[in-house]
């Protein structure tokens, strides 16, 4: 028997907010802003269509110009961008949903044709990776990343400052909280790993030094907007792919990070378990995590209804985020709750993941709409 207060469809408190169910919409870059990285009314429509999620986490939002790695991703550092985001937060709140913004610094995974400067990184080590370049003749296209420059102390202070200002901007834009992108080989993750961080100062070398930037960012934002509105996404087990090299120390380092975060009372910790490759998280590690961290945990990566229920029943996680299923099923929670079939990605869906307009973005129907359409024939 499922315990009454431990199922996917029951509310839970995540820091300062109460969400209606344990199903979150995972952060997903869709690259549909205007030039200037300004969020649009179409994005507000897309997020409001998905407001049945217990919590929506927006696509990664660059916190500054140097944080950008992909064209057309919505920033959160100019007045116009804050105004643009207000459309989405308002639309989601009108439908009784909750929405966090994912705060993003890509670090070395960028190119000067996107930011006008060399990418920032813990160390000057290039990653072989492609990013979504600027508009050129023939449209947008993927371009190879560039050799980054190692950040100095001033740059580190700037990054902490920019994250903090972006979090304040998020409050002004009406978000319920912020999720710091500490996963997938982006800046904060780059600092954690020996493969990308070979610094010899206070931010490199020992595990304590490599986790310093992460902790300073979390604490600075928490001081500014309240820890109960702050979350962080980590991906200790996502190794190959997305510029994220395997580092055998990551599980141990992650447990140390969690020990430091436990007393802060964050809204949740979000573990991205796989994106392009499968690497099963050992059950022992899940137990270790629970031993050091008792506050809300979210997990994400190839979950389906029954695996999501199981992980919540086992109490390894409190919330499960779904990614691609939310692209194709705006009413995903309703469908899961009522055991209705899910719309699958079309064979050409990948071409509408990034860039473009309504197609593959806001034109996926709810189950109800599909039925109505069928009845017309
Ligand atoms: C189109 C697309 C864009 C994504 N963009 C982001 C992003 O901006 N930030 C992030 O942390 N993860 C991003 N992800 C990863 C998802 O959050 C999620 O971890 C992944 O899709 C696995 O979950 P799923 O199997 O339920 O789709 C993206 C995934 C997809 C498919």
TrEMBL record:
Residues 8-342 form the NADH:flavin oxidoreductase/NADH oxidase N-terminal domain. Keywords: Oxidoreductase. InterPro entries: Aldolase_TIM, OxRdtase_FMN_N, Oye-like. SUPFAM superfamilies: FMN-linked oxidoreductases (SSF51395). One of its GO terms (cellular component) is cytosol. Its EC number is 1.-.-.-. One of its GO terms (molecular function) is FMN binding. Its cofactor is FMN. Pfam families: Oxidored_FMN. Belongs to the NADH:flavin oxidoreductase/NADH oxidase family. This is N-ethylmaleimide reductase.
């Amino acid at each position: 028997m499922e315990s009454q207060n431990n199922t996917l469809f029951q509310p839970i408190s995540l820091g300062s907010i109460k969400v209606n169910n344990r199903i979150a919409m995972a952060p997903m870059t869709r690259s549909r802003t205007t030039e200037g990285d300004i969020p649009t009314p179409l994005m507000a429509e897309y997020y409001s269509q998905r407001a049945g999620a217990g919590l929506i986490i927006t696509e990664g939002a660059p916190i500054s110009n140097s944080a950008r790695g992909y064209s057309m991703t919505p920033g959160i550092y100019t007045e116009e961008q804050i105004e643009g985001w207000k459309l989405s937060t308002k639309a989601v709140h009108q439908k009784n949903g909750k929405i966090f913004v994912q705060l993003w610094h890509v670090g070395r995974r960028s190119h000067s044709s996107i930011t006008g400067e060399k990418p920032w990184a813990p160390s000057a080590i290039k990653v072989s990776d492609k990013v979504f370049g600027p508009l050129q003749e023939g449209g947008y296209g993927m371009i190879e990343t560039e050799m980054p420059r190692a950040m100095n102390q001033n740059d580190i202070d700037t990054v902490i400052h920019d994250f903090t200002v972006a979090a304040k901007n998020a409050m002004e834009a009406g978000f319920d909280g912020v999720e710091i992108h500490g996963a997938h080989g982006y800046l904060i993750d780059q600092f954690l790993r020996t493969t990308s961080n070979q610094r010899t100062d206070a931010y490199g070398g020992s595990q304590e030094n490599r986790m310093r930037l992460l902790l300073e960012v979390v604490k600075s934002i928490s001081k500014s907007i309240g820890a109960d509105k702050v979350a962080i996404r980590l991906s200790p087990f996502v190794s190959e792919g997305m510029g994220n090299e395997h580092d055998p120390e990551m599980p141990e380092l992650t447990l140390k990070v969690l020990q430091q975060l436990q007393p802060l009372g964050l809204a949740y910790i979000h573990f991205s378990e796989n994106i392009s490759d499968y690497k099963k998280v050992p059950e022992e590690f899940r137990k270790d995590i629970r031993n050091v961290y008792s506050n809300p945990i979210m997990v994400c990566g190839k979950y389906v209804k029954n695996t999501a229920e199981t992980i919540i029943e086992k109490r390894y996680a409190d919330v499960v985020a779904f990614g691609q299923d939310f692209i194709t099923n705006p009413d995903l929670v309703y469908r899961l709750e009522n055991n209705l079939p899910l719309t699958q990605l079309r064979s050409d869906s990948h071409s509408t993941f990034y860039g473009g307009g309504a197609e593959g973005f806001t034109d996926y129907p709810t189950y109800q709409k599909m039925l109505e359409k069928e009845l017309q024939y």
